[in-house]
Amino acid sequence: MRPEKKRIAMSEEEKVVFEILKKAEKIELSELKSLAGLSNKKWDKTIKGLTKNKLAKVEKTDDGLFVEIFG
Question: Which CATH number characterizes residue 40's domain?
Answer without folding.
Answer: 1.10.10.10
